[in-house]
Amino acid sequence: SSTLERMRKDVRILLVGEPKVGKTSLIMSLVSEEFPNVVPYRAEEITIPADVTPERVPTHIVDYSEAEQTDEQLFQEINKANVICIVYSVNNKNSIEKVVSHWIPLITENTDKDSRVPLILVGNKSDLVEHSSMETILPIMNQYSEIETCVECSAKNLKNISELFYYAQKAVLHPTGPLYCPEKKA
Ligand code: GTP
Ligand code: MG
């Protein structure tokens, strides 16, 4: 992994998920360290300089919004990403169901079969519920080896926000799962 670290110039993190789960709010909360009451559909791409990231690698954070982007633009971003955060809202069952029925297949179809992109499941709006969504999420994690980890967070009370982006960096720089299957290449 130290070789990988030396070779990698930067990390590109893409956030996807159903509308209104809080993708833009998560990015803005990270950048401004406070919850923005009003957000655009899509945040500008931001680059965090190496020296202020935990892993010392320049990190690009890319937002997605169905309202402002075409499917083709989404597919291009999926292709460019080093790690993809699939965001759902812990108080919205439909947004969780879409992780498996829509987002994972869409990502699989649009990435190179030999180099799977690591995924992180992000349950946002944890401030709105008493109970964790982990019971629902764990079977999904066990089913898909490309899912590196999952995290529950809140853009509103800034819970687990910096952790989320740290996990995303780590998934690229120090992956724990196999990112390619040698037997498939034979
Ligand atoms: P699209 O751009 O339409 O795909 O939505 P999005 O996923 O970017 O969601 P956005 O950040 O626009 O947030 C949608 C709504 O959820 C807004 O009203 C936010 O204020 C609210 N919201 C976002 N994060 C949180 C959170 O952690 N807790 C609570 N309570 N509300 C949140
Ligand atoms: Mg948005």
From TrEMBL:
Subcellular location: Cytoplasm; Mitochondrion outer membrane
Domain (Miro) ranges: 8-174
Family recorded in the similarity comment: Belongs to the mitochondrial Rho GTPase family.
Record-given protein name: Mitochondrial Rho GTPase 1-A
Residues of the full protein shown: 378 to 563 of 1043
